[in-house]
Amino acid sequence: MTRVLLVDDSPVMRHYVARALRMTGMDITIHEAENGLVAMKKAFEILPDVIITDLNMPEMSGQELVSRVHAAAELSATRVLVLTADRTDSRRGEMQQAGADAYLTKPVTPEILKNSLIGMLEARP
Amino acid sequence: MSDVQAIAPGAVRSAIEQVFQTMYFSEAAYLGRAELGGAAFGTSVGFSGDVSGEFRVTVSESLASGMAADFLALEPGETSPEQVEAIVKEFANVACGATLGAWRPGGNFHCSVPGPLERDSDAGEFPYCFSVSGNGADLAIDIRIQ
Questions:
Q1: Taking a C-beta distance cutoff of 8 angstroms, is the pair B13, B30 a contact?
Q2: B76 Cβ partners below 8 Å, 6+ apart?
Q3: Is there a contact between A69 and A76 (Cβ–Cβ < 8 Å)?
Q4: Which of A66, A100, B96, B142 is the most exposed place for a label (fewest CB within 10 A)?
Q5: Does A61 touch chain B (CB under 8 A)?
Q6: Is ipTM beyond 0.90?
Q7: pLDDT tens-place string over residues B97-120
Q8: Closest to A85 (Cβ–Cβ): which among B83, B107, B111?
Q9: Residue A87 contacts B where some CB pair is shorter than 8 Å
Q10: In the CATH hierarchy, which fold is given to the domain comprising B9-145?
Q11: Is A2 near chain B, with CB under 8 Å?
């Protein structure tokens, strides 16, 4: 069972991504958070395998969340996928430097999501 | 703000078609310049970077309701006005990024949080219109470059 923490300030977007995750056919438990701050608290509780996060959110942005997860020893096995509408190369580079394991741009298909998740999980030590 | 349409229609068309196919599992037929009749929702996304401007989306009420139902896997009529508004904003956010990416691949842009757009009663024709329902234009895009 793969534990996924979905982080997006838009409830409808969380709903959509959760549906796309279920459509992958993978054995997944989905948890949700509306911003990076709530996500960090939940992450320490559930120790997710993967965090899927948006970037522009109130309270704590996706970029800060990525940095904090990367720095937390307890979350060293957690992989982070950034899912955003921002397609700029500079943004992608910033997220990779902050510690993101994958960067996908919306709109995304369930197939692309699945391939990305599998790739990240297989790459874990 | 200039009303000159500097973004190639091909970029708008391919981006909107891709967003509809991927997120709403439906086709958006490009009509070009057209009028959008009836009640509609409007939302606006500002962008800055290599080029600055505003990405405006106007969606007929019936299409907006259908988009919300598709997106949330609900029956038409089961969606709340708040959900419909949120879906149109999410669409505008994704469509803005996709259009700018198709127009200038590798370009540097930052899109703002979508906000409300008051519909101009004298709006007349919109430069980039689409038909999703098959019954005339029900989605209009307007891009203002600063």
A1: yes
A2: B65, B66, B69
A3: no
A4: B142
A5: no
A6: no
A7: 999 989 888 888 888 888 888 766
A8: B111
A9: yes
A10: Chemotaxis protein chec (3.40.1550)
A11: no
